[in-house]
């Protein structure tokens, strides 16, 4: 207790020095405050002491001159990583969350963030950080224990004390629903949420939420009565041999239906599919819950599919069952290069360092080989081209390439994979010269964050370096480098026409209205003389926060433009960001379901999408009359742009 009092005194003194310092000298006293904060945050009592000062943080200059200064720009998805970093960043993040809690509780009024906004922010933060709220009692958690994690757990204990846990259950289930609707290949985050949600079953949640949590739990665990009765995988496998064909078919359909409803795969489903593949192959279609097209593809390629299941489907790679089902329904195996390309991967001589990366991609990797993982990854990518994510890497361009090739050129994709995995080199032609990845260094992500699907792990480092090299070669041409880089990088289907809202040399916004009219004249069915979008169009958008503040540029792909169920035109697009349903401010919120979206698509009303657009390709020979676009529409879009990301730039028109 005496130690605690001493720490409180030291913090109080450090805070007083910072508070009384002149504005130009604040930075000189911040580090002392952060060091005292670290000492106090190691205990829950200390966190409460820090919180008692939270309403005074801004006035004292705690965040002055740093990225946490403006709370309206804070992103919930960045909190987890920041709190785990050793050093000042985790401490300042902790103080920032305490300030937000003070705003939410009405102890502090901020000019840009009100109590409701702060509460919504913290609800999302809690939903994304349940590992801090409900610490895991595992060996892994014990080994990875750190002071930063202890401090974060103390922080979230206070947040949960102040904000009802019931709010977390609702937010958490909505988050799980949103993420599963997008059908991502990487589901680790979803599985963690479900695992943590199970603990909410014992808290104050209503019956509907309890049923939803149970549904997700069952989908990833013991879904059927047989799997509940025989939880050991070996016992479950043995019992399958004693079942009648009718009971086996029922078992297969239960797992298949659950997988289609949630996009998630139970480990018992993998055991079942492997058993059916070797003993009752006529029931594999039921286990995959295939539609008519998928069943026909399975029948036509039964020998190849048998081999793919044998090689790729194991307990650690079980999620690829979903990819296999979707691949069959997409009819990808009818493309001539695909079957031989897949067979080549089964026995591909993979480089040792690549093998290690592939196997280590799964925490449970005992008994599987790099080839198993590689083939499983291909099934997912070919089946879920819009489920490919960039992870925590600045590699949206490369993720977009994998998605485009999976949709329109799977043969090319299957040619690039062995080049990277076996040869350690990927090459592309650019303006008459070959660019080899093995000769390049750097890229946008020289240190790749490895929570990615297997194919991204293999190819993205090479594609990233090649793309960066292409950009480097044309960066001084006086216009946006993407004009020349995108067609040779992605494929010749990318139109050669190119428009950008910024002047390349000055970064001023020039002729914004002309930019908007051109996009309408080339993409909106009411203005482009009926020309349909044949291939997905790689475009650039300005990403903004929930408050409309500019965050940065991002590469996405327009998949199609069509009317939604209400008869309104929407842009349906692929976002390589792992969470495609975000809030961009001004009421602009990309949707992932309920508006005619296909699996993995996001969508926005046409005019809202254009308000965040900054660059696009177009076919100049398929262009309508730009002058016919209603002035009212153009003005509406310009207002949205000016009052959000446009505040960061100088407008010349």
Verbal overview:
With 653 residues, the protein is of the alpha+beta class. The protein is built from 31 helices and eight strands. The strands form two sheets. A six-stranded antiparallel beta sheet has the order 3-8-4-5-6-7, sandwiched between helices. α12 packs across α13 and α29 packs across α31 (631-642). The relative contact order is 0.06.
User: What is the percent of helical residues?
Assistant: 40-55%
Placed side by side, the strands forming the largest sheet appear as 3-8-4-5-6-7
| Overall residue-averaged pLDDT value | 91
Q: Count the strands?
A: 8
Instruction: Assign an overall shape.
Output: globular
Low-confidence stretches: 136-143
Helix/strand-derived category reads alpha+beta
Outline of the structure:
Helix 23 crosses helix 24. The chain is built from 31 helices and eight strands. The strands form two sheets. It has a six-stranded antiparallel beta sheet with strand order 3-8-4-5-6-7, with helices on both faces. Strands 1-2 form a two-stranded antiparallel sheet.
Topology at a glance:
Blueprint: H1 2-20, H2 26-40, H3 44-52, H4 57-60, H5 79-84, H6 88-104, H7 115-128, H8 130-133, H9 139-143, H10 147-162, H11 165-181, H12 188-200, H13 207-219, H14 225-229, H15 233-240, H16 245-262, H17 267-279, H18 284-288, H19 292-300, H20 302-312, H21 320-330, H22 338-346, H23 352-359, H24 370-383, H25 396-408, H26 410-423, E1 427-430, E2 433-436, H27 454-474, H28 482-490, E3 497-500, H29 512-523, E4 537-544, E5 550-563, E6 569-574, E7 602-605, H30 606-610, E8 613-618, H31 631-642
Antiparallel strand pairs: 1-2, 3-8, 4-5, 4-8, 5-6, 6-7
Helix pairs in contact: 1-2, 2-6, 6-7, 6-10, 7-11, 11-12, 12-13, 15-17, 19-21, 21-24, 22-26, 23-24, 25-26, 25-27, 26-27, 27-28, 29-31
């Amino acid at each position: 207790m005496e130690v605690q009092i001493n720490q409180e005194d030291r913090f109080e003194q450090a805070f007083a020095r910072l508070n009384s310092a002149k504005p130009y000298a604040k930075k000189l006293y911040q580090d002392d405050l952060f060091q005292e904060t670290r000492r106090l945050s190691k205990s829950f009592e200390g966190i409460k002491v820090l919180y008692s000062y939270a309403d005074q943080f801004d006035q004292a200059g705690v965040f002055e001159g740093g990225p946490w200064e403006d709370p309206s720009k804070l992103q919930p998805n960045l909190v987890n990583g920041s709190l785990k970093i050793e050093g000042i960043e985790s401490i300042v993040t902790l103080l920032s969350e305490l300030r937000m809690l003070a705003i939410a509780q009405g102890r502090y009024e901020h000019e840009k963030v009100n109590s409701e906004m702060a509460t919504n922010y913290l609800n999302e933060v809690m939903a994304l950080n349940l590992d801090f709220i409900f610490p895991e009692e595992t060996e892994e958690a014990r080994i990875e224990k750190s002071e930063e994690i202890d401090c974060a757990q103390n922080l979230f204990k206070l947040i949960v004390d102040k904000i009802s846990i019931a709010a977390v259950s609702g937010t958490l289930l909505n988050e799980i629903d949103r993420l599963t609707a997008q059908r991502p290949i990487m589901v680790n985050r979803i599985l963690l949420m479900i695992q943590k949600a199970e603990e909410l079953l014992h808290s104050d949640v209503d019956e509907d939420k309890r049923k939803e949590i149970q549904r997700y739990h069952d989908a990833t665990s013991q879904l059927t009565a047989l799997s509940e009765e025989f939880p050991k995988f070996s016992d479950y496998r043995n019992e399958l041999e004693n079942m009648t064909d009718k009971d086996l078919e029922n078992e297969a359909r239960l797992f298949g239906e659950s997988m289609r409803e949630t996009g998630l795969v139970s480990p018992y489903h993998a055991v079942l599919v492997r058993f059916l593949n070797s003993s009752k192959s006529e029931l594999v279609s039921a286990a995959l819950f295939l539609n008519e097209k998928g069943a026909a593809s399975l029948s036509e390629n039964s020998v190849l599919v048998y081999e793919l299941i044998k090689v790729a489907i194991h307990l650690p790679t079980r999620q690829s069952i979903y990819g296999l089902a979707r691949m069959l329904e997409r009819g990808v195996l009818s493309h001539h290069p695909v079957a031989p390309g897949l067979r080549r991967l089964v026995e591909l001589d993979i480089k040792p360092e690549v093998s290690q990366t592939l196997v280590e991609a799964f925490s449970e990797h005992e008994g599987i080989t790099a080839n198993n993982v590689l083939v499983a990854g291909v099934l997912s990518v070919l089946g879920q081209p819009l489920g490919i994510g960039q992870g925590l890497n600045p590699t949206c361009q490369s993720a977009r390439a994998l998605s485009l090739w999976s949709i329109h050129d799977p043969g090319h994709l299957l040619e690039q994979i062995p080049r990277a995995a076996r040869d350690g080199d990927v090459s592309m032609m650019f303006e008459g010269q070959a660019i080899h990845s093995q000769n390049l260094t750097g890229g946008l992500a020289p240190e790749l964050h490895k929570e990615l699907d297997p194919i991204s792990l293999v190819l993205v480092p090479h594609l990233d370096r090649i793309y960066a090299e292409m950009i480097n070669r044309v960066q001084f041409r006086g216009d946006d480098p993407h004009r020349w880089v995108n067609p040779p990088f992605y494929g010749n289907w990318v139109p050669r026409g190119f428009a950008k809202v910024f002047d390349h040399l000055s970064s001023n916004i020039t002729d914004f209205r002309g930019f908007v009219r051109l996009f309408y004249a080339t993409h909106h069915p009411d203005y482009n003389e009926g020309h349909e979008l044949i291939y997905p169009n790689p475009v650039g958008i300005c990403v903004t926060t929930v408050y409309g503040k500019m965050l940065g540029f991002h590469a996405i792909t327009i998949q199609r433009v069509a009317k939604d169920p209400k008869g309104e035109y929407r842009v349906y697009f692929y976002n390589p960001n792992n969470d495609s349903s975000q809030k961009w401010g001004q009421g602009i919120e990309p949707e992932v379901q309920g508006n005619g979206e296909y699996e993995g698509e996001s969508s926005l009303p046409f005019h809202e999408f254009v308000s965040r657009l900054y660059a696009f390709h177009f076919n100049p020979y398929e262009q309508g009359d730009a002058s016919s676009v209603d002035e009212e529409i153009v003005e509406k879009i310009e207002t949205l742009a000016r009052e959000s990301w446009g505040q960061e730039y100088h407008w010349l028109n």
